[in-house]
């Protein structure tokens, strides 16, 4: 795919220059911070938020089935990100859009060495797939995650390594994969998490210890001596 024209009539390029232009006016320490946050920090934050979501859902689960469904939803978060990136591989190869700094002069490029294709943004795809996955598992934390994914996408434009449409495409791809495949993921993962929840050594991953104790009590016979009950009747 040919590079986009450096023209004010192209909103994609115009918005790229406007957002990336902020990096030229910002102090050096801020650019270095944005470089780290945009490349690693926000992704790491999404991982931590996913772990926190698992911990909170595990703690509040009221039954094994609820705990298994919640755990399956959390497991889908990294899986959705992985699937979305895999789906993006043929898309990038088909579109073949060069990085914006290869076709446009005057950009403030904060990260060197980006030689792969630009559309769709892997970072934006990963971030939004994880964010929507967290939203499916927990609405409140999901909103925080979506805000972080949005910042991750904007940071890619700020750093001069992606066009705005690269980021928008990544958001769309990540959202589509996380949402459309979530029912199938729940269907396949819930039996697995349910089995782990019933196991002796892996139950703590799915449900809190208090539930494990209650579950053991519920599986005990209410009358361990049915013969004596019959004789007394």
What does this structure look like?
The chain is 75% helix and 0% strand. With 233 residues, the protein is mainly α.
SSE layout:
Blueprint: H1 11-25, H2 28-60, H3 64-95, H4 100-103, H5 122-137, H6 139-158, H7 164-180, H8 182-198, H9 203-206, H10 209-218, H11 226-232
Structural class: mainly alpha
- Beta-strand residue percentage: under 5%
Round the Cα radius of gyration to an integer and report it: 24 Å
Oligomer: single chain
The main sheet comes to:
none
Succession of helices and strands = HHHHHHHHHHH
Helix share bin: over 70%
N/C terminus separation? 85 Å
Q: Runs with pLDDT <50, length 5+?
A: 1-8, 213-233
Shape: elongated
Compute the number of helices. Answer: 11
Mean pLDDT: 83
Attribute tags:
233 residues; mainly alpha; disordered N terminus
Short description:
By secondary structure, the chain is mostly helical. The chain contains 11 helices and no strands.
């Amino acid at each position: 795919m040919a590079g986009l024209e450096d023209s004010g009539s192209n909103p994609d390029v115009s918005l790229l220059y406007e957002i990336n232009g902020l990096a030229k006016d910002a102090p050096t320490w801020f650019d270095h911070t944005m470089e780290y946050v945009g490349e690693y920090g926000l992704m790491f934050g999404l991982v931590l938020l996913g772990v926190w979501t698992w911990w909170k859902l595990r703690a509040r689960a009221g039954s094994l089935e609820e705990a298994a469904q919640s755990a399956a939803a959390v497991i889908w978060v990294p899986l959705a990100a992985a699937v979305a990136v895999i789906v993006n591989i043929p898309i990038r190869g088909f579109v073949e859009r060069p990085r914006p700094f290869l076709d446009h002069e005057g950009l403030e490029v904060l990260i060197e060495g980006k030689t792969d294709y630009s559309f769709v943004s892997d970072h934006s795809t990963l971030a939004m797939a994880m964010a929507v996955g967290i939203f499916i598992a927990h609405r409140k934390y999901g909103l925080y995650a979506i805000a972080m994914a949005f910042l991750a996408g904007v940071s890619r434009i700020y750093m001069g390594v992606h066009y705005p449409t690269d980021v928008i495409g990544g958001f769309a791809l990540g959202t589509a994969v996380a949402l459309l495949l979530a029912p199938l993921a729940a269907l396949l993962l819930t039996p697995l998490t349910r089995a782990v929840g019933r196991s002796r050594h892996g139950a703590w991953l799915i449900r809190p210890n208090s539930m494990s104790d209650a579950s053991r009590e519920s599986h005990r016979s209410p009358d361990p001596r049915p013969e004596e009950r019959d004789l007394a009747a």
